[in-house]
Amino acid sequence: MRGYDLLAALLAASLTTSTSVAGAIPSRARIHVVYTPPKSPPFRSIYDAMRQHRVLERVGTIVSLVRLPTRLTYRLKECTGELNAWYAPESQSVTICYELIDSIVKSAPQTKSPAGVTRQDAIRGPIFQILLHESGHALFDLLQVPILGREEDAADQVASLILLHLGPADTRMVVKGGGYYFATVAKDEPADKGAFADVHGFSWQRFYNLACLAYGSDRKRYRTIVNNGYLPKERAEGCEEEYQQVAFAFRKLIGPHLRMRPNGGARLRRALCSAFRS
Hints:
Radius of gyration: 18 Å
Strand order of the largest sheet: 1-2-4-3
Pfam family, one: DUF4344
Largest sheet: 4 strands, mixed
Distance between the termini: 28 Å
Structural class: alpha/beta
Order of helices and strands: HEHHEEEHHHHHHHHHH
Signal peptide: 1-24
Organism: Methylobacterium brachythecii
Protein name: Metallopeptidase
Strand content: 5-15%
Number of domains: 1
Helix content: 40-55%
Keywords: Signal
């Protein structure tokens, strides 16, 4: 199978429960989802797959673990050719464009990359990473979380921390798929003076930051990241401290807004895993 005829199967493969109950958002949550039908026929398969497998609901269920002060909307829409996703504070909404998902599908390997990243992971991983990155922006705004440093970097850290608390299979999927996506985008990324002024980090930086947090969260599970040369040993030496720094900031700044105390991380891990697969 190729192209869009494969997308539904790939998204379905990320679920372990029946689609009739997958992604059910708790009634107490202030989460709203909108799947806007595309005008372009090629995007119809994306619309059908995302809607059938409740991808926005799945992310919304994770975010519903936070007590939100107001409603947060997740929206899939056509963006007149723009490959983008963003959080809009004026409408308190996270939007992901069909065009961006289309580019992810097209950049994924047909079967498996030389590094062993499957086509399934190369599609699913970036979609969830991007949606949770924008959810990070939403949490900063709605919870009035203070940010020391660049907000884009902080949103990446929040997304990575959440994803690293999912079940092992889901975490590996996102780390592999997200890393593949950053590395693929980096190949065509300009390195001129203007690029250094962008609020976003370079894709290779985002790749190494994700790899470092993964390795720092569990050196044994992610030892191949270093053993295979995807993360320099010099950087790897401090990754456990980097992970602990991000986890500490999350506990202090977002932890008080959670519906349960994240002490020790075990209870939060169980809740996140359950939300992602519920």
